[in-house]
Amino acid sequence: MVKKQEHEIPLTSFRIEDSFWSYFQKLVTDVVIPYQEQILNDELPDVEKSHAIENFRIAAGKSDGEYYGMVFQDSDVAKWLEAVAYSLTLNPNPELEKRADDIIELIGQAQQEDGYLNTYFTVKEPEHRWQNLHDCHELYCAGHMIEAAVAWYESTGKTNLLDIMCRMADHIDNRFGKGKVRGIPGHEEIELALLRLYRATGEERYLHLSQYFIDERGTQPDYFEEEEKNRGWHFWSKDGSDKNYAQNYAPVREQDHATGHSVRAMYLYTAMADLAGEIHDESLWQACLRLFDSTVNRQMYLTGGIGSSVHGEAFTVDYDLPNDTIYAETCASIGLVFFARRMLELKPDRRFSDVMERALYNGVLSGMQHDGKRFFYVNPLEVIPGLSGVQPEYKHVIPKRPKWYACACCPPNVSRLLTSLSAYAWGESVGQNDKTPSPADSENEAAASTDTCDTVYSHLYIGGTFTSKAGGGVTIRTETSYPWDGAVCYTVTPDSAASEFTLAVRIPGWCRDFLVSLNGQVLDTNSLDLRDGYLYVNRSWTNGDQLKLSFDMPVRRVYANPLVREDAGCVALMRGPLVYCLEQEDNGPQLQTVRLPKDSILTAENASDPVLGSYTAVRATALRLTPGDDLYSDEPPKAEETVLHAVPYYLWGNRSEGEMRVWIPEV
Amino acid sequence: MVKKQEHEIPLTSFRIEDSFWSYFQKLVTDVVIPYQEQILNDELPDVEKSHAIENFRIAAGKSDGEYYGMVFQDSDVAKWLEAVAYSLTLNPNPELEKRADDIIELIGQAQQEDGYLNTYFTVKEPEHRWQNLHDCHELYCAGHMIEAAVAWYESTGKTNLLDIMCRMADHIDNRFGKGKVRGIPGHEEIELALLRLYRATGEERYLHLSQYFIDERGTQPDYFEEEEKNRGWHFWSKDGSDKNYAQNYAPVREQDHATGHSVRAMYLYTAMADLAGEIHDESLWQACLRLFDSTVNRQMYLTGGIGSSVHGEAFTVDYDLPNDTIYAETCASIGLVFFARRMLELKPDRRFSDVMERALYNGVLSGMQHDGKRFFYVNPLEVIPGLSGVQPEYKHVIPKRPKWYACACCPPNVSRLLTSLSAYAWGESVGQNDKTPSPADSENEAAASTDTCDTVYSHLYIGGTFTSKAGGGVTIRTETSYPWDGAVCYTVTPDSAASEFTLAVRIPGWCRDFLVSLNGQVLDTNSLDLRDGYLYVNRSWTNGDQLKLSFDMPVRRVYANPLVREDAGCVALMRGPLVYCLEQEDNGPQLQTVRLPKDSILTAENASDPVLGSYTAVRATALRLTPGDDLYSDEPPKAEETVLHAVPYYLWGNRSEGEMRVWIPEV
């Protein structure tokens, strides 16, 4: 029977001190959060107007203005508050905390007497509350504010926002459910939020309400069609007839392909996985496995981007992965991280953590300018200024990160993910010696005896100090220069003289050769306890024990499945978890003329740049074809030798505006 | 100074009896024209409704119905009538002629007292006549009916339609021009039609009116912006702000890149070239050269398709030639044939005739089902059922030819081109011994002495009998199995005992090796008079003289300019003028997994198919990659040997619905 293999652990249990990630965490706490606060308060000139906090003031009766923005503008504030909550665990900041408390107070004032909270429908159309769940995002906004409330409570211990959102959750619970009004959200989010609220409060009604929304999706009669029939008004022109868009083509347990709006899909699947673990629901787990497989093995870009089409910001069909008209919304890659993390809780298997890593180091990070002040919504794998951002098919593929968006879902999503990164690096299973079969068992893999012991899981290689209850209490210090270097050293310090537990460390799927040493002695690879991509090291750990991993990290040529039309004949360059790309800044224009010979020499080289900082570049001997005058010719184009300079994909678009491409024809 | 190097010659001067083209001409006369007549009369079930003839009945007061169809529905009748006119020169058909005369009588009855003719604005919105030239196609419809009138007059000698359209032309001339009302058409066509009307009638006002419309385009203040301002109503939502769409970004003589709606562009450029020759306008000729170069050397598909984007059915930017989201409207390739033909009149140069041939044998013919009853509007170079015709980006790329269209411009355009093919095969310059410098001179190529002699030009290799006035009168019989075979034999029969003239024969750009023999004696290649891709053979021809050409016609690998992103790393197969493609029918699905090794063996083989008939197939040893389970892998995909069967592109889509592709990755 499926069940969670990991406990929830507090964010503070892993303090990140890392040569790679600390930069981003500091960037978010010091730059991004204040920058976004200014935007939400409309204090920055020359950026897309937010008005999100002013909307709360208007709803609270403290201002006379007009509502402005998307129908889900409230969620920008929610996600920012959630990021602030996490940031306080990294960097206490009483002034920021006070300002956030003031906003929370304002949110409370904007709440209606019956618990309802949504500034759009409070200010603009109170008569239309709850009538257009397909388009109007009331449950979505509630979900995000619930997430913020849980984060705020867990970080600060304060219940101010939690109390507000419990009232809203109760309001929702009083309205929707079996024997009450029928409803499901067009944009999923409330489901995963209610599960977090359930765990924060212990209130089982929230678990059941989440399950109601999950179970109801895709059942007949179609809720969105019924809603559309009953409604005499429209917010947008969307109708509910597209059953893929909001993942309602079948009851969720019967679904087998990831469809529609990719962010919606990820938020739903995240909740499904979470719920499967909470209620030990095997059929839900099996659906999650199918949907994960559909997402990452047939519809995912090399960068962990998902969503091939701007139309519906959506998945299309298997193996359709255009690089230049791509959508690959930053939020979708973040959602994929959420989904993979929840799957990993149910089964320690690198098929989940590898994807989490891929998205984090590539498609998520690319969403933010290296200075934290500009953001991509769409993360292309090929950009051609003049087409990209200009021609109708490419209009959404903007070659330079804008400062803000009218639909600003992505920037605060990056903030909350990066400030809560600790939750993704480590897992812990303590005191679970009950021998309940794990999903691994159900797939005919015998649980090793070490499974009966406390286990800590190292999912990501991030420097810092992890404090675990395993083996009676232990501190594990990680030192690494990952992803620039493949060496990771874990130093164990038990609270008592010795501590028996299992340290389970992911061996990444990208790695062909690695060495493991324990206290300086190299372990025989054949004797290692390797299961599902995790190396299990069980022992009685004593003070100063060191487990060292050394992953061979050459530059790799990566090939797409030949069913992917758009990458036919092409190769991409990766090193460790990082996808590399060519930029015009380093390689000149007309990148489509570059060819990578099969025998070309690929090297990793330290590089430094005033904007990008220090990074590892990939250099490659290559060919550049010489365009002739003829559009078509019987003669193969002439070629000149050249040397390419590839940069990590997450760093692209930080310098001059120019061409970029990931996939290179191989010759 | 630019001037026409060819005279107008009557269609009847070249009687086609050809193993390739006679099929299509017979198909059009016997099947397509009656089929389209039924559709225009709404007599066929299960096809997109036309109503085009009924609209004329309503406008004539002979029926009470409601107008139906596009604002340019009249033009479908015009193009059909034009095709009927040409078809009567191929195959006299008194009954068809009578029915056409009845329709012409109806058209006359639909004409207003002031000469105005347009059923939409007569029936639906008489108060809005001539107020929306940008969108409403009144001048476009007039142009097509003028072309029909000229064709009808030239084929039958009857002036019934010519009289009607002279009244309409006079109406237009009375309204528009310098010192009268300002105006230019949104969709060009009237310009080239008025030039034909001028030549048919000798009335110089029509020449001047054509020149007015050409000269006025792109001048300031912008006509379409002014019109938009003055108008309080809209037909469509288009505004006049896009200066590329209707080629009004600059006065035509200053234009240097082909832009916007590609059919509009071709019709304009055709008229510009025609006018340049009529009025000896060197700057207009130079603009035509630039626009031809922009079209065919930077924006044309291998098939002679043009228009890369569905948005505006338009050109985009140089070297942007997506194969799967392509537009490449059949009408645009037809327009390119018109443009190339007019250019060729001004300068016998294979850069024009090669393009004419490329479009004719590929992108034009592909527009019609092999049975003449279905038609493509969009002619893709890659089709993937499930994406093509379904997903929003690919919605317009229908994998199977529909029977008819709501916007049915293409089908009758194919009909009129195929029935008038004689006009494209031969050219004639008789009695032009005036030593006026030709454009060739202006490019520093000395006119050979033979230029002072009568010349006949063989632009296309089509079997049949050409009757020329050259050298005092001569008949030239052509025998060939082109394009399946590279042998062409011209047998000359002078009207008198001997006849001195130059036979100028195109040596196609695709041909690397050829032999020429005169009366069985092979000519020394070094002694040939070859200029601009034409072989000039001047002599005193006597009865039975034979000039034989033998073009080596191997299967060729063709490469796109490396600036074309979408064809990077790919090769296409051609033989003679024919582009080849792979279809699922012959090669199975997942054509994106096919790779063509550089050293693979390519052979031409006779093939026969119940639907396609006899044709030459290309067979190629190749590789097929084996899709694994992984979406991305460090291992290059495994490959199996396979043999490909490629069919001529013009034949694609005639059998089962399936994948098709032209460009194949080369390894």
From TrEMBL, chains A, B:
Residues annotated as domain Non-reducing end beta-L-arabinofuranosidase-like GH127 catalytic: 15-422
Protein name in the entry: Glycoside hydrolase family 127 protein
GO BP annotation list: carbohydrate metabolic process
InterPro entries membership: 6-hairpin_glycosidase_sf (IPR008928), Beta-AFase-like (IPR049174), Beta-AFase-like_GH127_C (IPR049049), Beta-AFase-like_GH127_cat (IPR012878), Beta-AFase-like_GH127_middle (IPR049046)
Assigned keywords, A-Z: Hydrolase
Stretches assigned to the Non-reducing end beta-L-arabinofuranosidase-like GH127 middle domain: 455-553
Gene Ontology molecular functions: hydrolase activity
Domain of life of the source: Bacteria
Sequence ranges assigned to domain Non-reducing end beta-L-arabinofuranosidase-like GH127 C-terminal in this UniProt record: 555-665
Lineage per the UniProt record: Bacteria, Bacillati, Bacillota, Clostridia, Lachnospirales
